[in-house]
């Protein structure tokens, strides 16, 4: 199934040509901006009274919204963390001869909005005719600085074709709410405002004592010989605004250069926030708008030099991958150990801005390949610092002796998800913590993390699994009942194959790491063994359970079973569904979904991708050909898994179809929900589809192995990898594969199954056989 793009296709931009109010909230999501510290949906700067999801977000700042459920169950978290819509720093309104510019009330005659992916700049150009016939041309651009973590810049220009009176008010507005609030609460309480040459608004959360301070300064450009009145910023009732009243003559242009500083108490104490925000503005004081824009372009150019993927001959595929890489690097920068990657990033309220298992399963491979190793390691350490709370989470559910259950959804290590089938049952997330450690060590070669926190996480997880299984005398195996796998269209199932396989991996991997540490770091091992109360009997218990855990299968079909009883369901294929029933989660009752065989996202196939070295190609093919036709791909995390596996199987048409779906999931609004925000964490799966799918990237025998293949729709593609301090560049086209090494004297890797040594600075070309 292919979809038409919502907006224009361009290798380096997403552009909306023409005004369509029905697409405004979708555009707000797609054109969002951020820099890892704060971000904002692409709302109009000026007044807009139509449907709009207002969103200005500050990383790490959240509100514990009281849980709202019909039936309270023991173990439920008391709150669901909500990312907060904070002070609106666009906050602008202007009128001409008393007519307020509002495109919801009076549409523009011309309209263009474009997100420059190469430089991280959002621009708008539009024309508007007032009821009394005055034509106004508006040209604006804004960005959130990549090189300055707390600064954003706006330039807004108005030109008139006739003489008129302009009233323009701009500033900061702290009177904001979240659309998603369980009890319609106001999440903020008033802090204080400041006025004078600069505006300032500081607000505090009603709980948890986060505070956000936002400062603004204006630089106006207009003919000073025109009659005008320009006052200072005036603070009042959570706002601080400046007003310009100006008489314009035909052909006149007035420009506002607005700069804002956004900080929170993660960056400075509450009493120092205002001074710190003013410092941010002072640091940019001597730079012009053009100089700051050039700085922005240079910062993004550096990033693209490290992370870009170039696709030749397929503009939709090219735009898709760059759009995904762009938003991933807008969301997380690795500069603050307290932050992680929310599924919506800075693009919407859904999922609360919290951390999910997506980080470990999808995002860490992306950052390993495109950023210095410290970035991925910091994501691992984020979980280690929350280990005590993971142990507390498990204790609430009746586990003991240091067993750890990492949360499904969290801001600070506490579980804050309150659907029983997810909170209590979707426990495969625990295994992702250990899988991510394995991926990090194998990719970077840095085993020090094992004894600098990693082992404690592994032991906590392994102990959880050991207590979660029970012995089935009937089956003569260790079984795990009452779980939800990655396929959330199945709840409370027994022996989900993926979950059981992960548990086995965690036990065996942890035991293997203990063997290495006890030999290579004996002093550390003696200390930690006492601390965690380790005994050989526990090692024997884990080994016995790993050797005899139930892994359901069907010998006739030659497949692993998603869970016990899956084949007893009425077997249908996704292709048999009527188009007006898709997506089924928007048309079917939950009861009907649970009784069906349809799969929301990869489940068995998720495990076969993660542990593909354990399975033959024939095993993979049988499972893929059975499960993929039953998968409706109504999770953003699904298409990339199928793209990677299809490429490995040589099913290039399917791999390409799934690549387009994952890379353009939001651009083409496959799931009809982009108005709620983008699918940030699944965007890392787009990178996986190219590099691990078409590029064939694997770690084999402590080294890189690749076997790039070329989709028929592409004439070539280029990608690069950070690998243990070096940069590796690969370009594949019909003439062959070109490889280039930078940053180390030489590197040996496997290409198409053959060992090859690259020398620094010397291109190696492998011609097609």
Please give a structural write-up.
With 769 residues, the chain is an alpha+beta fold. It is 30% helix and 25% strand. It has 19 helices and 34 strands. It has a ten-stranded antiparallel β-sheet, with helices on both faces. Strands 8, 9, 14, 18, 19 and 20 form a six-stranded antiparallel β-sheet that branches. A five-stranded antiparallel β-sheet has the order 22-29-30-31-34. Helix 17 (638-648) packs parallel to helix 19. The longest helix is centred in the middle third of the chain and has 24 residues, at 497-520. The radius of gyration is 27 Å and the shape is globular. The two termini are 34 Å apart.
- General form: globular
Strand order of the largest sheet: 1-2-10-11-12-13-21-17-16-15
Gap between N and C termini, in Å? 34 Å
Q: Classify the secondary structure makeup into a structural class.
A: alpha+beta
Strand content: 15-25%
The gyration radius over C-alpha positions equals 27 Å
Number of strands: 34
Q: Please give the share of residues in helix.
A: 25-40%
Number of helices: 19
Low-confidence stretches: none
Major sheet characteristics = 10 strands, antiparallel
Mean pLDDT across all amino acids: 95
Keywords:
769 residues; alpha+beta; ten-stranded antiparallel β-sheet; six-stranded antiparallel β-sheet; 19 helices; 34 strands; 30% helix
What's a quick, concise take on this entry?
The protein is an alpha+beta fold and 769 residues long. 30% of the residues lie in helices and 25% in strands.
Present the secondary structure layout.
Blueprint: E1 8-10, E2 13-17, H1 24-30, E3 33-34, E4 38-40, E5 56-58, E6 62-66, E7 79-83, E8 92-96, E9 99-100, E10 110-116, E11 121-129, E12 135-144, E13 151-160, E14 164-173, E15 188-194, E16 199-205, E17 211-221, E18 228-230, E19 234-236, E20 239-248, E21 253-264, H2 273-283, H3 289-307, E22 310-312, H4 315-331, H5 358-370, H6 373-384, H7 387-396, H8 420-423, H9 428-444, H10 454-468, E23 470-472, E24 477-479, H11 497-520, H12 522-531, H13 536-547, E25 553-554, E26 559-560, H14 590-595, H15 604-610, H16 617-627, H17 638-648, H18 652-663, H19 680-694, E27 698-700, E28 703-706, E29 716-723, E30 726-733, E31 736-742, E32 746-751, E33 754-759, E34 764-766
Parallel strand pairs: 28-32
Antiparallel strand pairs: 1-2, 2-10, 3-4, 4-5, 6-7, 8-9, 8-14, 10-11, 11-12, 12-13, 13-21, 14-20, 15-16, 16-17, 17-21, 18-20, 19-20, 22-29, 23-24, 25-26, 27-28, 29-30, 30-31, 31-34, 32-33
Helix pairs in contact: 4-18, 4-19, 5-6, 5-9, 5-19, 6-9, 9-10, 9-11, 10-11, 11-12, 11-13, 11-15, 15-17, 17-18, 17-19, 18-19
